[in-house]
Amino acid sequence: MDILEELWYGNITPTEYSRIENNANYKKALRLVNQNQERLMATLNDEQKELLEKLLTASEEFANLIEIDCFKVGFKLGARFTIEAYT
Predict the structure, then answer these.
(1) Which of 9, 26, 49, 83 could form a disulfide with 20 if both were Cys (CB 3.0 to 4.6 A apart)?
(2) Nearest-5° angle of CA 12, CA 3, CA 87?
(3) Which residues of 42-76 are buried (b: 16+ CB within 10 A; e: fewer)?
(4) DSSP class of residue 52?
(5) What's the pLDDT band for 79 if we cut at 50, 70, 90?
(6) Is the Cα dihedral 63, 66, 72, 77 positive or negative?
(7) What is the pLDDT of residue 62?
(8) Per-residue model confidence (pLDDT) at position 87
């Protein structure tokens, strides 16, 4: 099976190739985000906590859109390199 068929049948999942889990810098940054979020949540009333949760959810959705766009740009750039190599 070629790579396009592998992708079509779901045998290739680009999101599985995340380098975050094994990267010390990512772990450190995530730990800092979590610590600060917990500290902030402890100081807020219920209404403020709800607003913060909505902000965090919207931020995650925005980050996902950016990740998708970056993936598409990178994929297209790789394809252009491939085309250039064969012409």
Answers:
(1) 26
(2) 135
(3) eeeeeeeeeeeeeeeeeeeeeeeeeeeeeeeeeee
(4) H
(5) very high
(6) negative
(7) 97
(8) 85
- pLDDT category, 66, cuts 50, 70, 90? very high
Which amino acid, one-letter code, is at 17?
Answer: Y
Phi and psi angles of residue 34, each rounded to the nearest 5 degrees, phi first = -65, -45
pTM recorded for the entire structure: 0.69
How far is the C-alpha of 65 from the C-alpha of 8, rounded, in Å? 22
Q: Are 56 and 44 in contact (CB under 8 A)?
A: no
d(CA 33, CA 20): 14
Inform me whether the pLDDT recorded for 16 exceeds 70: no
Q: Rounded to an integer, what distance in angstroms lies between the CA atom of residue 28 and that of residue 75? A: 28
